[in-house]
């Protein structure tokens, strides 16, 4: 009886690593988005605006670097590109804090902010791994009124970036 138990343990120990290697890996729990002022995906997650699957994954708007879409080129999140969807516009001052909430801390090259068809701010992290939150003070310069801000978190060690759009009214 003892030898059967030992044989079962030995077989289990031999099979376990094979199962672990052969089973598909789960997807990552995601990465990051702007929580304040509320980005479009934050508004979806909070139920402020009715959205699809982005409601459950506000931190997952990832795509190749260099895009200019709110969805990061991800077809599953295309509704983030719809400017007529009824996004809440947040009143902000000329210099505003943008707060990122990160669920995975990637090595970061740059954070970029675009509004009015041009880059208004860039912060270089030089490959550093940020904490769970990151805050940037962004100055809108001469821009005023309603603006859609495209914020981009460029990852240092992959060809991808994370995208967030924030609708603001600059006073």
Largest sheet: 6 strands, mixed
> Helix/strand-derived class?
alpha+beta
The share of residues in extended strands comes to: 35-45%
Number-wise, the strands total 9
Poorly predicted segments: 6-30
Shape: globular
**CA(first)-CA(last) distance:** 81 Å
Number of helical elements:
2
What is the N-to-C order of secondary-structure elements (H for helix, E for strand)? HEHEEEEEEEE
**Whole-number radius of gyration?**
21 Å
Secondary structure: helix percent = 10-25%
Summarize model confidence as the mean pLDDT. 86
Structure, explained:
By secondary structure, the protein is of the alpha+beta class. It contains two helices and nine strands, in the order αβαββββββββ. It has helices spanning 2-22, 40-46, and strands at residues 32-36, 62-64, 90-92, 95-102, 108-115, 118-124, 133-139, 145-155, 160-170. Strands 2, 3, 5, 6, 8 and 9 form a six-stranded mixed sheet that branches. The chain has a three-stranded antiparallel sheet with strand order 1-4-7, with no helix packed on it. Strand 8 and strand 9 (160-170) form a beta hairpin. The longest helix has 21 residues, at 2-22. Mean pLDDT is 86; it is low at 6-30.
């Amino acid at each position: 009886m003892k030898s059967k138990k030992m044989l079962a343990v030995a077989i289990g120990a031999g099979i376990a690593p094979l199962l672990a290697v052969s089973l598909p890996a789960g997807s990552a729990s995601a990465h990051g988005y702007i929580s304040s002022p509320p980005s479009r995906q934050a508004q979806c997650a909070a139920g402020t605006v009715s959205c699809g699957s982005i409601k459950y994954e506000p931190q997952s708007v990832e795509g190749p670097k260099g895009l200019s879409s709110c969805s990061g080129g991800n077809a599953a999140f295309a509704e983030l590109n719809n400017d007529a969807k009824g996004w809440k516009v947040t009143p902000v001052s000329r210099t505003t804090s943008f707060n990122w909430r990160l669920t995975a801390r990637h090595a970061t090259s740059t954070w970029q902010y675009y509004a009015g068809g041009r880059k208004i701010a860039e912060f270089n992290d030089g490959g550093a791994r940020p904490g769970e939150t990151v805050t940037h003070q962004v100055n809108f310069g001469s821009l005023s009124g309603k603006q859609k801000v495209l914020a981009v978190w460029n990852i240092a060690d992959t060809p991808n970036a994370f995208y967030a759009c924030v609708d603001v009214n600059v006073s």
